[in-house]
Amino acid sequence: MMKVQVILVVCSVFLQNSYGATIQAQPADAKTQILNPNPELTDVTFVSNASIQLVKIDSNTSITYPTDYDDVPLDINDPKADARAIRNALTASKVNTNSIVAALSGKTRAQRLRVAEEYKLLFKAEITKDLKQKLGDHWLTKLVIDLLIPLKEYYVKELHEAMHGAGTNEDTLIEILCTMNNEEIKQIKEIYEKTYKATLKSHIQYETAGDFEELLVALLNADRDESGKVKKKWGTDESTFITILTQSNYEQLKLIFDEYKTLTGHSFEYAIECEFSSFIQRGLLAIVKAAHDLPKYYAERLHSSVAGSGTNNKRLIRIITTRNEIDMDLIKTHYKEDYGITLEDAIADDTSGDYKTLLLELIRENPCRDTNLLGCTFITIRAEEESNP
Ligand SMILES: [Ca+2]
């Protein structure tokens, strides 16, 4: 019993440190709640509607914690205070970029969107517009604004920018469309059409041609088998590379790659390199890499953004801001393994100032997979075991 209580205190301290809020242990029959020290924030809302899990530690105590990363309570941060801090920073005689970076750090995208919402309510202004107007540094401005757009809308914007105006950025189309699952593609198509009053498909068909166009259109069909079920027999049908790579599930693809190597003595990638060139080759290879190991693919994309002379800041920002809540730890591990330098060092070498600070902050820790929260869960479970020998 003593042990259990001590552990509970540890949990509370962890949470207090990370979010400035306290999760308080209460009798199991009492309504469990997250107490917030900020009197303005009375309701606890959650990003999704998924239930809050009640974890009983022993007969006298209970504690709530989010069931998964989507359910991190929003209000344990103080979005109003962050909105005010950003407003003050922007209206100061010299824009205080430090405090803007601080206000946007250590948050999930969902939490930052709440800050944008509060900003709008408090100051009757769009935070992204104000930032664009007041922040001087081009890449810092882009990074900050990209962090304040809903994720799917951000992808839509990136796709549109890749095609709008003269020329096409095929690599961006490949990076986004070759890595999405069916649901993501469906949502992105919908938002794209709503935003630009034209289908994503029509823009892609206008901007691309030949078998590369065919590949992207096949991906837009969102027709990949996602069952994860593997057929052991394959290989004699007439399927094209495009059909196989856009319709088979990743597990099936891995088996196909292995079988291919056994049968021919060379890799599937090698076959693609021999058979195709230019963008179609890059697109097909991206799918093969995504099927093998998606974080490794993103590590490669990041490396190509910073390696050599010059920096592809757009790509750097896109991958950091879209993957930092998903698989950044794995990406960092691959980066170190594959390129012999940490991602932190690679980014620090290529960037500077507040832009660098915020990028490093984004890959340093992810509030969604915050070790404090995970630590709390772990300790809670252990406490349960200890109280139940
Ligand atoms: Ca164009």
From TrEMBL:
Is Calcium there in the keyword field? yes
Q: Which GO terms describe its molecular function?
A: calcium ion binding; calcium-dependent phospholipid binding; phosphatidylserine binding
Q: What is the lineage of its organism?
A: Eukaryota, Metazoa, Ecdysozoa, Arthropoda, Hexapoda
What name goes with this protein?
Answer: Annexin
One Gene Ontology term of the biological-process aspect is:
endosome transport via multivesicular body sorting pathway
Spell out the SUPFAM superfamilies in the cross-references: Annexin
**Family to which this protein belongs:** Belongs to the annexin family.
Q: Which organism is it from?
A: Ignelater luminosus
Mind telling me which GO cellular component terms the entry cites? Answer: cytoplasm; nucleus; plasma membrane; vesicle membrane
Cross-referenced InterPro entries: Annexin (IPR001464), Annexin_repeat (IPR018502), Annexin_repeat_CS (IPR018252), Annexin_sf (IPR037104)
Q: Which of UniProt's keywords are assigned here?
A: Annexin, Calcium, Calcium/phospholipid-binding, Repeat, Signal
Q: So which residues are the signal peptide here?
A: 1-20
Q: What is known of its domains?
A: A pair of annexin repeats may form one binding site for calcium and phospholipid.
